[in-house]
Amino acid sequence: MKTDMGFRGDDAREAKTASRLVRVFGLDESEILRKLSGTPWGKNISITVREEAEDSIVLIEGRGYDSEAAKRAVRDGAAEAARALGDFVVGVDVPSLEQVVAAELSRQGKKVSAAESCTGGLIAKRITDVPGSSAIFGLGVVSYSNEAKINVLGVDPVLLRDFGAVSPQVALAMAKGCARLARADYGIGVTGIAGPDGGSPEKPVGLVYIALTGPEGDWSWKTTPRIPWAGRDWVRRRTASRALDLLRRRLAGLPPGGSLIESC
Fold first, then answer.
1. Is the pTM here over 0.85, yes or no?
2. pLDDT tens column, 53-87
3. For the chain, what are the domain ranges?
4. Helix, strand or coil, per DSSP, at residue 22
5. Domain spanning 98-263: which superfamily?
């Protein structure tokens, strides 16, 4: 959706333009627009919002009678958007969520590891897509089977028996297991049902548990199924982003960004 408040007619054709990109995670398009609606945009600002599985993009375009005026307009517009959206903003003019997380891990001298089931290594892929990631990432485990969870990650079989593989208890045990194996500061554990089959009334398709363990303590996140189901690929991509965003928030000293329950 695009909201356009700018120059018109001959002025619009002659104006110079500039743009900035505000990357957001944790708000859908309607929530972003609602938060931005109370912002006193200048007449030379245009806003485009696009929601994807990995994150949402707010494109701020500014116009001016010369290049410097356009840059000032878009700078002020991006600052207003960031203030309105708060800690849901991943960054301004940043290439990806994983780039932001990798840069902060590097700055703090910390490392992360990931144990994944339903995401099939997607979290590890996104982190290792970042150049220099060997300094902040040492181990990724795709533990689809219960045997792998037990024998590789050290998950207690009693947890699997009592709570099942798709549970917050097992997600946290996976996170702790991979952090221990990698001697990493942080561990991520993900287990869920990406679909299209494998669900039940008690644990429907789209249910995912994400756990993050670290020196500050543990977080567990429950993702409830979006109605209608958005598809296997969406669930996997969204889950990977949620895991990375939880780590971003932990590194920045921010709260988790919700009630630890969301729809996906």
1. yes
2. 899 999 999 888 899 999 999 999 999 999 999 99
3. 2-92, 98-263
4. strand
5. CinA-like (3.90.950.20)
